[in-house]
User: What shape does this take?
Amino acid sequence: MTDTRDNPINDAAGVDSLKPRDFEGYVVTNDNLPTKNTIQKIGSFSLLDREGSAHTFEKVANVAERTFVIFVRHFFCGNCQEYLRALSAAIKPGSLPQDTAIVVIGCGDPRLIDMYIDATGCKFPLYTDPERKIFDALGMVKTLQLGDKPWYIEKPLVVSIIASICQVLRYLPKGLALSSGHHWQVGGEFMFETMDGTRQVTWCHRMRSTRDHAQLSAIERVLKIESAA
Assistant: This one.
C-alpha cells in the first residue's frame, strides 16, 4: 500500500513569517501520522539537555520500546506548565508499563529547563529544540488562538498570565527573558514505537490552539495504563 501521508498539514508548519497565516485563529492542522521518511529524517536532528549537551532525536525517542514524546510551547507558557503539572500528578513514571517512557521537548534556551522542571514538577526527561526543526518536520503549527478551556487548566487566565510575567522578569537580569522559545509555536503528543522492525509514530495529536494538549483519557489509553478515575 502506498503511504500518502506526506505533508500532513499542507505545509502550514513551514510558515514562520512575522505574522503566520493562522495568527487570527484559523489553525490548519490535523492528526495524520508522520511518514516513515519524516521519522528517518528527524532522527539526526539535535536536542539539547539542561546542560546544553546535544543528543540526537533518534536516541531520545528510542529510550524505550514505546516512547511518548510531548512537545510543549515556550518555557514561560502558563498553559503548558499547568498541563505538565496535571499530567505529572496523574501519571507517575512508576505507573508506566515496563516498555514505555515519556519524554518532554520544549523550544527555548536549555538554561531555562531547570526553571521549567521546578515550575511544573515534571518527573520526565526534558529536552529542547530551540531551532524547532522537529516541531516543523512533524507538522506542528503556530498560533496565538486560546481555544476552549481544557481539562488541565485550574488557574484563572489572568493569574496564569501574571505568573508568566513574573517568570519573565525573574530571568531578565540573566538575559533569558526573551529566550523561552517562539511564543506562537504550539506542540502536541506523538507515540513512537517499533512496528515491523522500523520505528513509527502510531498515534499523534497536534495542538490547534495554545491550550489544546491531548485529553488525559486519550493519553492513558495510548500509554496502556488504567485511569485512576
User: Anything to note?
Assistant: DSSP finds seven helices and seven strands in the chain. The first helix runs from residue 36 to 42. The CA atoms of residues 14 and 96 lie 34 Å apart.
